Amino acid sequence: MAKSKRPSIPTHIKRSVMMKSLGVCCVCKERGLGTNLHHIDSNPFNNSEENIAVICVKEHDQHHRPNAYDNSKHLELGEDKIRELKIEWENTVAECQKENPKVIAVTNVYGTYENIHSVRFFLQNIEGKIIYERIYHLLTGTLEQWTDNIINEVVWLGEKVKLSIINQPLKVEYCPCCTKSLIDVLDKNVMIRLTANDWKEKSISTIYINPSNPSLALTIFYNEKLVFSCHLHKCNTHLHFVCDNYEERTPIKKQTNVRTQATEIINRIISTWEVERILIGTNNPDTPTLIDDFDLPNIWDK
Q1: Which of 26, 170, 250, 286 is the residue whose CA sits 20 to 30 A from 5?
Q2: Among residues 248, 264, 266, 253, which one has the least CA distance to residue 301?
Q3: Which of UniProt's keywords are assigned here (predicted)?
Q4: Lowest-confidence segment of 64-68, 110-114, 187-191, 248-252 by average pLDDT
């Protein structure tokens, strides 16, 4: 008995799937590679859009010939995994096209200010997950070429996608378990600030100044949700700053008074978070007295 002829994928299905994936593989997201339209359930007669995934030639071959690849380099591309990656990538592409996308393009720069040797570009969603990444190194091109490639990549993703650049070169660090280089992702609450188009209207900071000890506490809220908290106090010859993710001890300089140095730290936090509405209180911490200006008491300089 003759086998049924394999039907072609309808043109409108092809166009829709390619458009929703930006025409790239849902696994590696590499641009400029040859692609296949893959039947996720391996049934060539099931041409529903949900069953068609865009996969590059390499990933398609890995799916059909897994034994031909080194296990350490092979991503298990079973039916469930391909479907998961297809959905994730198509949702990401759709998010990138929105007026206020909840994804951020991020760059990690490695080396020193005088010698940048590599850059990691990645797309991160608001939950902190990295959707994909690109690595640029001096052996693959110049810094100018990397910059052009990164800008081109962001434009390709969507004109409203924001690009965040880590403000100083990083040291390359490795995971002690898998030995892969670590990525400096954006904090989830920082992602909220960067992607909220109503941040200035709905963000507010509160500062409590302790009147009897050289200490203070600062919080930042967005839409009535706490997104950042920290406290600062004088600790012998240092200003000790503690927040949600790190702490820092800054030596007190003799050239200026301690109040000025503490104020500079708080101003830097407010500037970084771009908060315009600030409530400042003192005296009773449960029912603080509101004051107009950030003015630390003289006890900081004793």
Answers
A1: 26
A2: 253
A3: Endonuclease, Hydrolase, Nuclease
A4: 64-68
Residue among 164, 67, 52, 55 nearest 108 (CA): 164
- For residue 185, give the nearest of 86, 103, 302 by alpha carbon: 103
Say which residue the tokens 């052996």 belong to: 139
Q: What is the Cα–Cα distance from 270 to 247, expressed in whole angstroms?
A: 17
| Topology of the domain covering 103-192 | Nucleotidyltransferase; domain 5 (3.30.420)
- How far, in whole angstroms, is CA 147 from its chain's centroid? 18
Tokens of 75: 């991503």
Q: Which residue has the higher pLDDT, 177 or 81?
A: 81
Q: Spell out the domain ranges in the chain.
A: 11-96, 103-192, 198-301
**pLDDT band (50, 70, 90) for residue 69:** very low
pLDDT digits (tens, 9 = 90+) for 93-137: 999 999 999 999 999 999 999 999 999 999 999 988 999 999 999
Quickly state the pLDDT bin for 72 (edges 50, 70, 90): very low
207, 231, 203: which is closest to 295 by C-alpha?
207
Closest CA to 134 of 30, 32, 33: 30
